Amino acid sequence: MRVGVLTGGGDCPGLNAAIRAVVRRAIHYNYRVAGIHNGWAGLLGEGSLEPMGLRSVSGILHLGGTILGTSRTNPLKKEEHLQQVITNIKRHAMDAVVAIGGDDTLSVASRLFDLGIAAVGVPKTMDNDVSGTDYTIGFNSAVSIVADALDKLHTTASAHHRVLVVEVMGRDAGWVAVVGGLAGGADFILVPEVPTDIGAVCRHLERRRQLGKDFSIIVIAEGAVLPGIEVISELGERDAFGHIRLDKRNIGEIVAREIERRTGFETRVTVLGHLQRGGSPSVFDRVLATRLGVAAVDLIKDGKFGCMPGLAGNRIVPVKLADALAKPKTVDLELYELAQLFY
Ligand code: F6P
Fold first, then answer.
1. In this structure, which residue's CA is closest to atom 1 in ligand 1?
2. Protein residue closest via CA to atom 2 of ligand 1
3. What are phi and psi of 241, to 5 degrees?
4. Rounded to an integer, what distance in angstroms lies between the CA atom of residue 39 and that of residue 251?
5. pLDDT tens digit string along 260-310?
6. How far apart are CA 343 and CA 33, in angstroms?
7. Pairing, β 307-312 against β 315-320
8. 186, 305: one domain
9. Number of domains in the chain
10. Quick one: 158 and 242 in the same domain?
């Protein structure tokens, strides 16, 4: 048996831990492993691959990024590319492929499975918006970074009696904003799932001042929706999966300016950006990535293709990719409401 492994989409901490787990479990079963470079791009053209063994994954458990490289290449865009991917999987004698990625990467694996390729997935994304798993690889590390940033921003906001608007990632789901904000004591959280009136935000800030709280931290997801607030809607080219660059939406800056205009409170903005995807994985992500990577190879061994392992409570369970991809996992509104208790 020869297993191909790739990482696709945006990187996040924990990818190397997952690669290591896949390789180690495959070696345990006497499978050979091919590392595919740069996501699905590594299966276009002639293909770009490397044989992987124990030494390739030694000393990488704690490293951020991905030793295989990644890309947002989408071979589903052109039939010719999809065929190249299939041809390369066969030409490089891969009996099965493990795709470590978010919904975009997993959607390619799912399509390949429909076309007869023995593909399995491993759910990763700092956004935590893949269904079928309680948590995805990268999310815990990202929210730890957000919480740490909020701790630091509290001291400067307090010293200057300012409002600090902290923009975090989160295209369609507010997981990072809600969990990071809850952990870091945010005074207001804005997410894509719940359109929020800017007037309500300002009234809340004014109420806080009346109560003697002379600084506030607002966490806003890059995809947050505020009716009546104009954001740039034409944001240039879309990526291969049709996504616009939400960082260019500038929502943090726009909201900060509006708060200042309406309340007169001095307001500053911090955009955490790619810091949320950098550095070493948290303990939780190392363990999750290890469990999911091992389980993905077990799915191959058991012939459960077209599936990914997911975390359900504290158990790892097989989930059909088609089910995981049927709809994104939006933020838990109970958590969102819980955070409001502390505003
Ligand atoms: O896919 C996860 C994500 O981190 C989103 O939250 C964010 O909008 C996007 O990636 C940023 O992508 P890039 O690194 O390609 O700019």
1. 10
2. 10
3. -100, 10
4. 30
5. 999 999 999 999 999 999 999 999 999 999 999 999 999 999 999 999 999
6. 50
7. antiparallel
8. no
9. 2
10. yes
